[in-house]
Amino acid sequence: FNGEETKRQVALTGYTLMAFQAAGHLPGEGEYGKNVTAGMNYLLESIGPDGLYNMRSDGQYMYSHGIATIALAELYGQTKSPTLRAKLDKAVKVIISAQATEPGHEGGWRYRPIAKDADISVTVLSLVAIRAAKNGGLEVPQRTIDEAVQYVKRCQDERTGGFCYQPQRDPGFARTAAAIYSLQVCGLYDDPMVKKGSAYLFENLREDHEWFTYGNFYAASAQYMVGGDTWVKWYPKVKDMLMSQVVKQGDVAYWEARGRGGVGPTFCTAVYTMILAMPYHYIPLYQR
């Protein structure tokens, strides 16, 4: 990691592990098995007795907690490692206890691991993390998931079908992608809100979008699960955008940071690898 990325090592390790899994690599298996094992162990060693990762002073802590926990939950689902489960369970309990309780924010999550207010970006990461953990057999109260789903639904703008950062605010591409993906992960594949959100994404897909990387991390997953003509039309468009920007140095290929949410080449390369690998069907969270 370098530059801004050094401040986000837990989150970036989570994204990178997801990219490896999307390409079919698991701990100790195959060409990159050692890399996956090292990344997994880094995250596990970062979790303290209280379930918090070792970057708790980060002002946007729950972002990193969410993606790291998603990565570990997916790894647990495929390895069933008892050691992994014990640490994962602690991280999941942090998310459950931090669910917002303030009026108007009930069911969501925000930057800090305290039960206060909420926004769509942190809520989606937290919801997907606990859903992945539940899918893997960990104990997660159904009420926690149901209340989170209701918060996400309250963030939809009925006029456009897009989703907002918080209820009654302006909709946006990245927020909409994140929201409908989280609803799909919770089983609401054919919900009218998902269909309207999917259409909104088509109407607002732009290569110069300031949150291009962050937004497409969710948008590709969401449109993949919508499937059919939606995915057939979506994937070639995004694939062409990504392949036109790839940097190649010998056998190495990567992407430079782009847009406000780009952070750095590690983040962008991990996300774009996940997108390009989706047709391989390796990650359970990308399946109906």
Instruction: Report the top-level CATH class.
Output: Mainly Alpha
Low-confidence segments = none
How does the overall form come out from the CA principal axes?
A: globular
CATH A-level architecture: Alpha/alpha barrel
**How much of the sequence is in beta strands?**
under 5%
Most strands sheet:
2 strands, antiparallel
Q: Terminal Cα separation, in Å?
A: 34 Å
What's the average pLDDT?
Answer: 94
| Element-by-element helix/strand order | HHHHHHEEHHHHEEH
Q: Structural class of the helices, strands and pairings? A: mainly alpha
CATH topology: Glycosyltransferase
Output the number of helix runs.
Answer: 11
The amount of helix comes to 55-70%
What is the strand arrangement across the widest sheet? 1-2
| Structural domain count | 1
Task: Summarize it.
With 288 residues, the chain is mostly helical. The chain contains eleven helices and four strands. It has a single domain, classed as Glycosyltransferase.
Would you write up a description of this structure?
The protein has eleven helices and four strands. β3 and β4 form a beta hairpin. α1 packs parallel to α3, α3 packs antiparallel against α4 and α7 packs antiparallel against α8. The radius of gyration is 18 Å and the shape is globular. It starts with 8 loop residues before the first helix and ends in an 11-residue tail after the last helix.
